[in-house]
Design brief:
The protein folds into 2 domains: 1-40; 42-139, K homology (KH) domain (GMP Synthetase, Chain A, domain 3, 2-Layer Sandwich), CATH 3.30.300. With 144 residues, it is an alpha+beta fold. It has helices spanning 42-64, 104-118, 120-125, and strands at residues 5-11, 14-19, 24-27, 68-80, 88-100, 130-139. 19% of the residues are buried. It contains 3 helices and 6 strands, in the order E-E-E-H-E-E-H-H-E.
């Protein structure tokens, strides 16, 4: 099954992107190409897509393992090549996993499996970038 999208130009560097599933987001370019800082840049969306992809994997695996997670946040920082095409050359992901009585080994395994096997966005970005990750555990007290 193909994944589809449509990008429609609004004005200057502003566009509306519509997904095949019927959702839309706005995209804007940087000022040097006529953008007005009205929306996320295209490469920011790629980075956000990677974060969303891996977060879904990790949350899904931890729920199946009955981990009592209350929050999962993935912070991403990417370096880009100096010359066009300015692809990502390094991406660091910091997973902030909050919950009660978390099994660290299960959380680490979920992140590892997303990174190495399940996250399609990570697999694509890894073609040009060194991808690293870190996990920050935030233990929440058990309600009495």
């Amino acid at each position: 099954m193909a994944t589809t999208a449509r990008i429609s130009w609004v004005d200057d560097a502003l566009m509306v992107a519509e997904s095949g599933s019927g959702h839309s987001v706005t995209i804007d370019g940087s000022a040097d190409v006529g953008g007005r800082d009205l929306a996320a840049r295209p490469l920011e969306l790629v980075l956000m897509g990677m974060g969303g992809c891996t977060a879904i994997d990790v949350i899904s695996m931890l729920r199946k393992q009955r981990q009592d997670i209350t929050s999962v946040v993935v912070d991403l920082e990417a370096d880009r090549a100096a010359e066009p095409p300015k692809v990502f050359t390094a991406v660091k992901l910091v997973y902030r996993v909050r919950g009660r009585k978390l099994n660290r080994a299960l959380v680490e395994r979920a992140v590892q499996l997303s990174d190495s096997k399940y996250c399609s966005a990570t697999a694509m970005i890894r073609k040009t970038a060194d991808v690293t990750h870190e996990i920050v555990f935030e233990e929440e007290p058990v309600a009495s």
